[in-house]
Design a protein that fits this description.
Layout (H helix, E strand, L loop, with lengths): L1 E5 L8 H12 L3 E9 L2 H4 L4 H13 L2 H11 L2 E9 L1 H9 L4 E6 L12 H6 L6 E5 L9 E6 L3 H9 L1 H4 L4 E6 L10 H11 L5 E4 L6 H11 L4 E5 L5 H7 L2 H8 L4 E4 L1
Parallel strand pairs: 1-2, 1-4, 2-3, 4-5, 6-7, 6-9, 7-8, 9-10
Antiparallel strand pairs: 5-10
Length: 263
């Protein structure tokens, strides 16, 4: 497994980095720390922007020693990369050669437009599944999981991507719901068979059709004492989600545990 972590210049021992190390240690994965020297409009508007970018890049390269020491401390194989460019494009290109992208989930009050933030837009490209880790997370490997299931291919991809973690979990709750009443026709049997063949046992809970999915996922995750949520992102039209909100936006704003997401 290859894990890629999006790391900002001020981040060192944040929960999302600790979480990625926990995954890498458990699955003998290679973990790459990536710091992007962003060529955004603010930098370009500065006097001598190339000098500013070169200075930032030099400082970023100097963090290599910190990264190597962190990898040794956590007992994992890793590498440090610094790339210059448009942040989203760099992440999309680099994540296409990763099995999992790990990023920080700032949450509400961060000033970042939820649902249109950098990592959410990278997720929409479908280059790799993603784990977004809130600052309140302990950084430990999750053992109690909540799976959100609506019968869609997107939800199936998220569950399949989380298979390594599912096989190590002590307890799994599957929350099944489909407001449209169509997607799960035949899909439930396929999912049950897939879970059984992989030796995965879970508590299956049916979500009433009239209940808002985002709020229900957060509530059931708390009741089940889940320490991670697995779900497909952008279940409706992506443009409609961006404009009106929806399950994905609700989780991005309110999740207190890591989100395993696939689009």
């Amino acid at each position: 497994m290859d894990i890629l972590i999006d790391i900002q210049s001020s981040e060192r021992d944040t929960p999302h980095i600790a979480f990625a190390f926990a995954l890498a240690r458990s699955f003998a994965a290679h973990v790459t720390g990536l710091q992007v020297i962003a060529m955004d409009a603010m930098v370009v508007a500065l006097p001598d922007p190339l000098i500013v970018l070169e200075n930032e890049e030099n400082v970023a390269h100097q963090r290599h020693e910190w990264w190597d020491a962190a990898c040794r401390r956590h007992g994992v194989a890793g590498s440090w990369e610094v790339q210059r460019g448009v942040h989203r494009r760099v992440l999309v290109r680099r994540a296409s050669f990763a099995d999992l992208l790990v990023g920080r989930l700032p949450g509400s009050g961060s000033g970042i437009p939820l649902g249109t933030g950098l990592l959410a837009r990278v997720l929409m490209t479908r280059v790799a599944p993603m784990v977004l880790v809130p600052d309140a997370c302990s950084g430990a490997l999750p053992r109690r999981l909540l799976l959100a299931w609506n019968g869609s291919a997107v939800a199936a991809r998220a569950i399949r991507a989380a298979l390594p973690v599912l096989t190590r979990a002590r307890h799994i709750t599957l929350l099944a719901g489909d407001r449209a009443g169509r997607l799960r026709t035949g899909a439930d049997a396929l999912l049950r068979g897939w879970l059984e063949r992989h030796g995965i046992v879970c508590d299956w809970i049916e979500l009433p059709a009239q209940v808002a999915a985002g709020e229900a996922i957060c509530r059931y995750a708390t009741e089940a004492r889940a320490d991670a949520i697995v779900m497909g992102a952008w279940g409706r039209s992506r443009l409609r989600e961006l404009a009106l909100g929806g399950t994905t936006r609700h989780l991005l704003a309110n999740a207190s545990v890591p989100l395993f997401l696939s689009a």
